[in-house]
Design goal:
two-stranded antiparallel ribbon, six-stranded antiparallel β-sheet, 8 strands, alpha+beta, 3 helices
């Protein structure tokens, strides 16, 4: 059972099922990604679990800036969860890793492997962007390896999600 947005309801439903069908073998499972990562969108606004913070981002490269205020990023539907809302720009940095604190943009359109950002400022071809996502569960089934970083962005571990 999923339950990132309303885990209290899932637990209640499981309890009812156990009571009503107690003679059937059941293995309760709550495979929700939000208990590990939470999100930067939908669940952040509806979750009843206090203290959860967004913790999963997807890093991508700015491939094109075809006109002022518009940037095309090298990540799309195959890399980014989008069923619960488009990604949000969290941070930008130049190709040497120097932060671009003035970088802003809004996700406008998503394609197979590209995301179009509009209302952009201070983003250039070759920059890296960190994108906050909605629906982290969908990120886990898109990425076979997820790098865990510390507060300074240094790699500390690699997770290998497995869904069967």
């Amino acid at each position: 059972m999923g339950g990132s947005a309303f885990p209290d309801r899932v637990v209640h439903t499981l309890a009812e099922a156990a009571r009503d069908f107690g003679d059937l073998p059941m293995v309760p499972a709550l495979p929700s990604g939000c208990y590990v990562t939470h999100d930067h969108g939908t669940y952040a606004h509806v979750s009843r679990v206090p203290g959860l913070r967004p913790a999963l981002t997807v890093r991508a490269v700015v491939l094109s800036t075809p006109e002022p205020g518009r940037a095309v990023v090298g990540a799309g539907k195959r890399e980014l969860p989008y069923d619960a809302g488009l990604p949000v720009l969290i941070a930008g940095r130049d190709p040497h890793g120097t932060p671009r604190p003035a970088a802003t943009a809004t996700a406008d359109q998503i394609y197979d492997h590209h995301l179009v950002l509009t209302d952009g400022r201070d983003l250039h071809v070759g920059d890296e962007v960190d994108l906050g996502i909605s629906h982290p569960c969908s990120a886990f089934d898109r990425w076979p390896d997820i790098t865990v970083v510390d507060g300074q962005g240094h790699p500390r571990d690699v997770w290998h999600p497995q869904f069967r």
